[in-house]
What does this fold into?
Amino acid sequence: MADERGPGDPDGGDESRRDGLEGIIGASPAIRDVYGLTRRVSERSTTVLLTGETGTGKELIARAIHGLSPRASGPFVRVNCGALSESLLESELFGHVKGAFTSAHENRTGRFEAAHGGTVFLDEIDSVSYTLQVKLLRVLQEQEFERVGDTKTIQVDCRVVAATNRDLLEEIDEDRFREDLYYRLNVIEIVLPPLRERQSDIPLLVDHFLQRYVVPGREIPTVAPETFDVLAAYSWPGNVRELENYVERALVLTDGATLVPEAFPAHVRGLAPPRIGRTEVGELDRLCGQLVAAGLREVGGSETGIHPRIVSLVERQVIRQVLHACQGVQTKAATRLGINRNTLHKKISEYGLEEDVR
Ligand SMILES: Nc1ncnc2c1ncn2[C@@H]1O[C@H](COP(=O)(O)OP(=O)(O)O)[C@@H](O)[C@H]1O
Ligand SMILES: [Mg+2]
It folds into this structure.
């Protein structure tokens, strides 16, 4: 199980290990594209925007870009822009001088200065306020800024890598993100594919995490084939991070030499509804609001009949998307949806989805 190569892919793992991408696992075409771009952008100081759902490996790639670059011996400084309020973030990034605000008892060097000669990784860039975005734009364009409360201009030599799990074009449409900053950041975009779109990497990743989390001296359990089937059918909203957590958990729960599906939570096995995160609840709430509003308009202000109509609207979309994700294979889609094949068959004709079936 120490071998990270996938079947039919004789040098996938090796290739990544040779050139500074070690620890980044995967041999699927999608992740290979990411390796290629990562290598290419590392040579220069080009600004890079990493996009992808949470847990897809954006930070891992940001570190690799730095590590492979001529700046590797310089600092790598990560700032989680989503974790700080606007004023704290401003002083975190640019520093401040004593007396700039009530709690500024000392001069403070900002993260951009700390990253001089290296790389700044701006994680969750979408959370930066509109005003602060202007200041960021200037750093990107002129490589200069002032500390909060100071007039002296500071010059820095930093490479910027930014990451987001949101669609910045949508943020621009809603006036939450500046278009000019977007184009500055997005010189090169690397899109991290969700795990559900590179299922073939799951066995490699499972192996990798088993090796990482096995208690030293204990034998690494073998993975039962049905476990891989279960893992392939799950949608992995938390992506590689979620898989990593569940493999670690499964190791704790396994005494035997084999990792069985029961070592994974019920919702991963399709036996319980998936846990939904706060972001998804928010999005869902917004969408439901729109659907209800549209439904009310259509039925002329009376509320009768909205429920079944909206439920079937949503159901139809869910079935369509799952069919797509399963390349139109009905048995696979039925497993993933957690409904039986006949039910799926009926719904396909009810909703006129025959064209989405292979
Ligand atoms: N391709 C990969 N190979 C190995 N580990 C990965 C890979 N992608 C992500 N991980 C692991 O998953 C977790 C989440 O990755 P991270 O880079 O923090 O994701 P993101 O920043 O997109 O949320 C980390 O523990 C990371 O090491
Ligand atoms: Mg992250």
About this structure: The two ends are 35 Å apart (CA to CA). The domain at 278-356 is CATH 1.10.10.60 (Arc Repressor Mutant, subunit A). The chain is about 45% helix and 10% strand. Residues 58-59, 123 surround magnesium ion (ligand 2) (CB under 6 Å).
